[in-house]
Structure formats: C-alpha cells, structure tokens
C-alpha cells in the first residue's frame, strides 16, 4: 500500500498502538500528524517517524477531554495542510475497575469526555480538512467493550459507556457522510498484545487461532480498510474472542 502524498492524523499516538499507526503511515509515505496529551511525548513519536522512514511528521499536544485543546490541535494541523486523507481516532482514556466505586468522579468524567466527546469534537473540527480530500477515511479504534452484552472486559463502566457512545456516533456518522464519499470505519477489538513496532520481532509474533489478537493484526485491518477502492465502504471490524 502506498500513502505517498496523503496526510494522516493519529490521536493518542504517544505510545503503543497509536505510535505503531504513526510509524506505519510514515513507512507508507504519508505526511503524519500525531497528538498526545504531552507535546514532548508527541514530538518524540514524530521524531521516531522521521528517523524510521524519512517521512514528514508534525507533533501536537492534545487533551481529548478538553474541547479547547482539540480545536487548537485541528487549527494547528490546518496551518500545515489544506486537507486530511485519514483521521485515526485512537486516543481515549482507559479506566480499570469493574465496580462504580473503583474510580472517582474526575476519572469517570475524564474517561467519558476523552472517549466520547473527544471523538465527536475531533471529527467536527477536522471535518473541513476531510471534506477537502479527494477521498477521506475516518477510522475509530472503538473496543469490544462497546458491543451489546459483551461482558468479558473488566474495564470500569465509564469506559464501557464512553465506547458505546463512540460506537453510536460512528454508526450515524458513517451513514451521513457516505454521500460525500467519506468513509467511517470502526474497529471493535478485544484486548490485544502490544509492542514496539521498531522491534523486528513485533511483526513476527505468532498469529494463529490459539493466540491472542496482536496489534499487528489490528493494524493490518486498518490498512486493509483504507486501501480499498472508494466504492467499498467497510463499516466495522468485529473480532471473535478466545
């Protein structure tokens, strides 16, 4: 797959899967824009992208629980480009603890704001740049926690609520943006193994029916979906769980 000439925005790119997405986009030739809560963390990833593949990468600090921060992020990207081809909504706070009393009110509010409101406002403020693309994709890393009656995850109820809201938003957005040729693609993975994509062994992890889902497999799904011809609208990926 070749993303040369494309612009790719990745939220929550400071570590793990978000960082892997940014590095992969760079290796495919994209101009990459990354965000993390800490500007220094985002800048480190942008530097990794450039040193890894030579791709152009720009970093921004963005707190997805803060509407002002989200708008500033979008405004900052707008100052560098007149369009965005792929927006990947990866960033969201995870909150552990199956009981409501396992988290204080601030953590609950922050979790729902970053995962639900944060996704909605990110798409809202990037929509002019997406509409300026000849064929844009919005990719949402949701979670199997958003699936109806999926009780495997021991995440806090606030995380389930945030992801369910994100899924509902993505569903209606897909239908409403399709007439404009903008695809909205959502992935609902269970917990998957993480790793450092600069480590050569990361892509060589055993991937059989007996193994947990790997980050590389989830990344492959993202690249498969955005690589399809523009008449192909893949709305969602749901994964069988062990």
In short:
This protein has 6 helices and 7 strands; from the N terminus they run E-H-E-H-E-H-E-H-E-H-E-H-E. It has 242 residues and is α/β, with parallel strands linked by helices.
Task: Let me know the number of strands.
Answer: 7
Give me the strand/helix succession.
EHEHEHEHEHEHE
Mean pLDDT: 93
Q: What is the general shape?
A: globular
Could you tell me the CATH topology label: Rossmann fold
Q: How far apart are the first and last residues' alpha carbons, in Å? A: 30 Å
Question: What can you see in these coordinates?
Answer:
With 242 residues, the protein is α/β, with parallel strands linked by helices. The protein starts with 6 loop residues before the first strand and ends with a strand. α4 (105-131) links the parallel β4 and β5. A seven-stranded parallel β-sheet has the order 3-2-1-4-5-6-7, sandwiched between helices. The model has no long low-confidence stretch (mean pLDDT 93). It has helices spanning 16-27, 39-53, 67-78, 105-131, 157-177, 215-226; strands at 7-10, 31-36, 57-61, 86-89, 137-141, 183-188, 236-238. The chain has a single domain (7-238), classed as NAD(P)-binding Rossmann-like Domain (Rossmann fold, 3-Layer(aba) Sandwich).
């Amino acid at each position: 797959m070749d993303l040369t000439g494309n612009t790719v925005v990745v939220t929550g790119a400071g570590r793990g899967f978000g960082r892997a997405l940014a590095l992969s986009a760079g290796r495919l030739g994209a101009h990459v824009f990354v965000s993390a809560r800490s500007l220094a963390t985002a800048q480190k990833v942008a530097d990794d992208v450039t040193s890894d593949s030579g791709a152009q990468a720009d970093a921004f600090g963005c707190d997805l629980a803060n509407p002002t921060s989200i708008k500033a992020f979008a405004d900052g990207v707008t100052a560098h480009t007149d369009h965005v081809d792929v927006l990947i909504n990866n960033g969201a706070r995870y909150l552990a603890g199956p009981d409501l009393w396992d988290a204080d009110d601030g953590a609950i509010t922050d979790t729902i704001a970053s995962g639900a409101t944060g996704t909605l406002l990110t798409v809202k403020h990037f929509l002019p740049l997406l509409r300026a693309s000849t064929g844009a994709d919005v990719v949402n890393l949701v979670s199997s926690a958003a699936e109806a009656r999926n009780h495997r995850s021991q995440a806090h109820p606030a995380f389930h609520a945030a992801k369910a809201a994100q899924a509902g938003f993505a569903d209606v957005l897909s239908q409403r943006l399709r007439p404009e040729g903008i695809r909205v693609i959502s992935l609902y993975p269970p917990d998957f193994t993480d790793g450092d994509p600069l480590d050569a062994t990361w892509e060589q992890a055993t991937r059989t029916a007996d193994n947990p889902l790997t980050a590389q497999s989830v990344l492959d799904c993202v690249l498969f979906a955005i690589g399809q011809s523009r008449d192909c609208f893949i709305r969602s990926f749901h994964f069988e769980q062990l």
